[in-house]
TrEMBL record:
Residue span, BED-type domain: 26-83
Lineage: Eukaryota, Metazoa, Echinodermata, Eleutherozoa, Echinozoa
SMART domains from the UniProt entry: ZnF_BED
Organism: Strongylocentrotus purpuratus (Purple sea urchin)
The UniProt record lists the keyword Lipid metabolism: no
PROSITE patterns: ZF_BED (PS50808)
Transmembrane regions: none
One Gene Ontology term from the biological process aspect of the record: regulation of transcription by RNA polymerase II
The keyword Nucleotide-binding is annotated on this UniProt entry: no
Sequence ranges of Basic and acidic residues compositional bias: 104-131
Keywords: DNA-binding, Metal-binding, Nucleus, Zinc, Zinc-finger
Name this protein carries in UniProt: BED-type domain-containing protein
Gene Ontology CC: one annotated term: nucleus
InterPro entries per UniProt: HATC_C_dom, RNaseH-like_sf, Vacuolar_transposase_reg, Znf_BED, Znf_C2H2_sf
Subcellular location: Nucleus
């Protein structure tokens, strides 16, 4: 008689699994719907790849598919809905076998199974309540309705019905589902509805970012930028490139109107133009105005930037600059002088040619012009360093630093020696094409480490410099100290005007023109002679020009108005020229309007005039009184002195405003990190937007 064991069994399994070994009754897991075996081409090792995200996983013989299932539950809870998660321990104890005559299960095991099922039912209820709690938190705190889409409710229901589902895994799965439905936003970023006011605020921030950081306008079309903004604020309507262009042009027109109103009260306006090249080899000229305000502050405002076309003549560029100045309310006749310069990234020959072009443009504008002080110093020093023997020294010094940087033995010895002397190792490698300041820094670094280098390498090492080269190196450092000091002085914010140009340059020449001595090498003396000749010819120091603007600026500066850098004979024509110019300004004031009437004090009516209220009518008397003043400290800002003494010299202070407004350089001599970043960022701007963005970037104070 055959007995149907399946009908008498109490377990929910098929007859084909009755009393079979554990390995033979295992079914294929449902995780393999989303997983696939792969073989590595590198080492022929096997791994498992997730079909949903492409992540590489492993499944060992001990863990089986547990880590694969955990990955699906944690990362892809919205797509993976398992009907049951088997308990491996329960399977090992025979829970999946049917209870029949061939089963080893007894009544105690059945009781344990019933108790386990009851407990699992309670866990399911708790999991469901926990899921509802998390869902309410997501809806209340994050502002996202998890049940807005029907698929979300079904996904959470499937998760809560999972057998023996751990509470921590369930929380992670629900949180992951919430992130995927809300655009992969981390929990720290709460989704906020993008209202019109919030969208306007984001648009203003983007517009301000384009101006302050000088970023191209087409950055808003980048996928990475859009993903970032969408992660922070979903639903934000991105502005178009055309819309930003219209906003830039409108802001540019508004800024030029405000700038014209601000410059209308200026007596004289100094100009500077900077010729620079972007990353696409397109040339631009940026024009900047310099004025002395009513409270005696030196203000600089960018008028605009014009693009120099390839086939444009000097007359065309001059007309573009004239039109741009007119739009900002600047009349060329009110400009005492224009200072021109370049970005300084070209060679000496190219820089010289570009300076000639700028000088020709200034000539067509019919305005006095002079080159940038930094350009003149740089060209003079570079020409002096172009001597073949000095060029060989620069090359050998660079090779020495390369050897010290690459040889491991030298590095260890240098580090040990410098550690004993408590010094740091900083080396700069350069060649003849580098700037003179970089070459000077390299020489100073080698001179500081000369003793250590000779100790490590030895005097006869082929990579080391010869004794004569070390001597010339020290002589060059001493000669360049005066030039570096001049750059530091003229780069100071208190010396923006050109009044310190002639006193400083005469000091540099005095430092360089030392008498020939026996202890100076031939190369060192040649360098000094060439540098002195270059500075005298390029800076117009061979003769005294009383009517030059820089000479008059020094004569009206309270720090240098005694003109001690000149001889007694040379001071006379300078003072006479300043008196003549003051007389011309006085006559122009009488022709344009009535002179100011000063009220007499009661003391004047009772006691008459004295040395304080004596009215000086002749301009030469004002100059003589001014020259009787004691010179102020060289560290003092001359504009502060004029602000305090404006009422004492009312006519002379107007002349001072018209002369001291002319800058000493077209580009910053001492470039800070922010200035260098600005000069580099402007090279990547679109030629259509460069005028508006540079204007708004430099003239941010107009809108405060």
């Amino acid at each position: 008689m055959e007995v149907n064991l399946i009908q008498e069994a109490e377990e929910r399994v098929s007859s084909e699994f009755v009393n079979r070994p554990l390995r033979s009754i295992r079914r294929r897991s449902d995780v393999w719907t989303f997983m696939e075996y792969r073989t590595s081409k590198a080492n022929n090792s096997k791994y498992i790849e997730c079909k949903l995200c492409g992540l590489h996983l492993t499944a060992s013989s001990r863990s089986g598919t547990s880590n694969l299932r955990n990955h699906l539950l944690n990362r892809h809870a919205d797509q993976y809905h398992p009907k049951i998660i088997p308990d491996r321990h329960a399977v090992k104890r025979g829970y999946r076998f049917a209870a029949g005559p061939f089963s080893s299960r007894d009544d105690n095991d059945k009781a344990k199974d019933e108790e386990r099922e009851n407990k699992e039912g309670q866990d399911g209820v708790e999991a469901k309540s926990e899921a509802d709690k998390i869902k309410m938190e997501l809806e209340g705190e994050g502002g996202i309705n998890v049940d807005a889409n029907g698929g979300d409710r079904d996904s959470i229901s499937q998760l809560t019905k999972t057998r023996r589902f751990a509470q921590s895994s369930m929380k992670k799965a629900v949180a992951r589902l919430h992130q995927q439905k809300s655009g992969n936003v981390p929990g720290i970023f709460r989704k906020i509805l993008c209202t019109s006011s919030r969208a306007q605020g984001i648009s203003n921030s983007i517009f301000r970012m384009l101006i302050e950081d000088l970023l191209p306008v087409n950055i808003i079309e980048g996928l990475g930028f859009r993903a970032l903004v969408d992660a922070l604020q979903a639903g934000y309507p991105f502005p178009t490139t055309f819309g930003l262009e219209e906003r830039l042009l409108a802001r540019l027109a508004e800024g030029r109107t405000k700038l014209a109103k601000r410059l209308s009260s200026a007596l004289k306006i100094g100009l500077s133009c900077d010729l620079w090249t972007d990353y696409h080899n397109r040339n631009f000229i940026t024009v900047t105005s310099h004025v002395i305000s009513t409270d005696w502050r030196n203000e600089s405002w960018v008028l605009g930037t014009v693009k120099v076309k390839a086939n444009a003549t000097d007359v065309d560029v001059a007309q573009q600059i004239r039109d741009m100045c007119r739009d900002c309310g600047v009349t060329i006749s009110d400009v005492p002088a224009m200072v021109y310069g370049t970005d300084g990234v070209q060679s000496v020959a190219d820089t010289t040619e570009r300076l000639k072009v700028l000088k020709s443009i200034c000539a067509f504008l019919n305005v006095e012009s002079r080159p940038c002080a930094g350009e003149l110093l740089g060209i003079s020093v570079q020409n002096a360093l172009g001597v073949p023997s000095l060029a060989k020294l620069i090359q050998d010094a660079g090779q020495l630093i390369s050897h010290l940087s690459t040889d491991r033995t030298c590095q260890q010895e240098l580090t040990r020696s410098l550690k004993d002397q408590k010094k740091s190792l900083t080396l700069t490698i350069c060649d003849t094409s580098s700037g003179w300041q970089v070459i000077s820094d390299m020489f100073c670094q080698l001179a500081e480490l000369e003793e250590v280098i000779c100790k490590v390498l030895g005097a006869d090492h082929e990579a080391n410099l010869s004794d004569l080269q070390w001597k010339v190196l020290h002589e060059l450092i001493q000669a360049l100290q005066g030039v570096k000091a001049a750059v530091a002085v003229m780069g100071d914010g208190r010396n923006k005007s050109g009044s310190c140009w002639l006193p400083v340059m005469h000091g540099v020449l005095q430092h360089i023109d030392t008498p020939n001595a026996e202890d100076i090498s031939d190369d060192g003396q040649v360098f000094r002679n060439i540098l002195s000749a270059e500075l005298k010819s390029r800076c117009e120091l061979n003769e005294i020009l009383p009517s030059s603007l820089m000479m008059q600026a020094a004569a009206i500066d309270p720090r240098f108005h005694h003109l001690r850098f000149l001889s007694d004979e040379d001071r006379v024509p300078v003072v006479e020229g300043l008196k003549q110019k003051l007389s011309e300004n006085h006559r122009e004031g009488l022709e344009n309007g009535s002179p100011e009437v000063e009220e007499d004090s009661p003391f004047f009516a009772l006691l008459g005039e004295d040395e304080f209220n004596k009215k000086t009518i002749k301009p030469e008397d004002v100059i003589d009184l001014f020259r009787l003043e004691r010179p102020v400290s060289r560290e003092t800002d001359p504009l502060n002195w004029w602000r305090l003494n404006e009422k004492r010299f009312p006519g002379l202070c107007k002349l001072a405003k018209g002369i001291l407004c002319v800058p000493i350089a077209a580009t910053p001599l001492c470039k800070s990190t922010e200035t260098s970043r600005t000069l580099e960022n402007r090279k990547r701007l679109d030629h259509v937007h460069v005028d508006a963005q540079l204007f708004l970037h430099k003239n941010n104070g107009l809108f405060e």
